Amino acid sequence: QSVLTQPPSVSAAPGQKVTISCSGSSSNIGNNYVSWYQQLPGTAPRLLIYENNKRPSGIPDRFSGSKSGSSATLGITGLQTGDEADYYCGTWDSSLSAADWVFGGGTKLTVL
Amino acid sequence: EVQLVESGGGLVQPGGSLRLSCAASGFTFSDHYMHWVRQAPGKGLEWVGRSRNKANSYTTDYAASVKGRFTISRDDSKNSLYLQMNSLKTEDTAVYYCTRGAFHAMDVWGQGTTVTVSS
């Protein structure tokens, strides 16, 4: 069981918009920045969003991030078949004796 | 070009040891925290641990699942990060990624190296 909760899967048609949620608590999302990662099949993950809503250079503005309280959301507009991937949220968690990094369980995006 | 390249993976018996390496290039390695992240077959991402940078005395933190068995070290003169894995268990079987810490995230990832623990 992951500390951060994501839906196992989401789907939408090409051109549509999809959102992926990431739910946590005050010990992680509530008091820390959230980042999002995309993992295309058979490849290493790559950073999509950092500090809740910022995009690294090279990431299209179709990808957006937001955070409210202890939850975060990744939004993807103008869906393309190439967006089919697993998406993970991540942040620090300070509920244990020392701060640990935690990931959500991942969400598989299917573009129908 | 900013790049991380892992090596050292392979097949090892339960109870055995393995040392992974990560060669960094294209950035000032000593400035950055560095992490190891793993992914078991068909599973999600799991943080293994991190090494802080020189300014923070190279201190390390580990996930509970590997604490006492795994050790992270680095050699800034060689732009390299290491993961010494001892007392390996079958559940340590995974692809191991080296990542760079920046902007409260992991902004650069290596291609991964596969570790298989099996008799």
Set down the secondary structure blueprint.
The complex is a heterodimer of chains A (112) and B (119).
Chain A: E1 9-12, E2 18-23, E3 35-39, E4 46-49, E5 63-68, E6 71-76, E7 85-93, E8 100-103, E9 107-111
Parallel strand pairs in A: 1-9
Antiparallel strand pairs in A: 2-6, 3-4, 3-7, 5-6, 7-8, 7-9
Chain B: E1 3-7, E2 10-12, E3 18-25, E4 34-39, E5 45-51, E6 60-62, E7 70-75, E8 80-85, E9 94-102, E10 105-109, E11 113-117
Parallel strand pairs in B: 2-11
Antiparallel strand pairs in B: 1-3, 3-8, 4-5, 4-9, 5-6, 7-8, 9-10, 9-11
Task: Characterize this entry briefly.
With 112 residues, chain A is an all-beta fold.
What does this molecule look like?
The complex is a heterodimer of chains A (112) and B (119). Chain A has 112 residues and is an all-beta fold. In chain A, 0% of the residues lie in helices and 44% in strands. Chain A has no helices and 9 strands. Chain A has strands at 9-12, 18-23, 35-39, 46-49, 63-68, 71-76, 85-93, 100-103, 107-111. In chain A, strands 1, 3, 4, 7, 8 and 9 form a 6-stranded mixed beta sheet that branches. Chain A has a 3-stranded antiparallel beta sheet with strand order 2-6-5, with no helix packed on it. In chain A, β7 (85-93) and β8 (100-103) form a beta hairpin. The model of chain A has no long low-confidence stretch (mean pLDDT 95). With 119 residues, chain B is mostly beta strands. Chain B has strands at residues 3-7, 10-12, 18-25, 34-39, 45-51, 60-62, 70-75, 80-85, 94-102, 105-109, 113-117. In chain B, strands 2, 4, 5, 6, 9, 10 and 11 form a 7-stranded mixed beta sheet that branches. In chain B, strands 1-3-8-7 form a 4-stranded antiparallel beta sheet, with no helix packed on it. In chain B, a hairpin with a 2-residue loop joins β9 (94-102) and β10. The mean pLDDT of chain B is 96. The chains are: A mainly beta (112), B mainly beta (119). The A-B interface holds A 2, 32-33, 35, 37, 39, 44-47, 50-51, 54, 56, 86, 88, 90, 92, 96, 98-106 and B 35, 37, 44-47, 50, 61, 63-64, 97, 102-112.
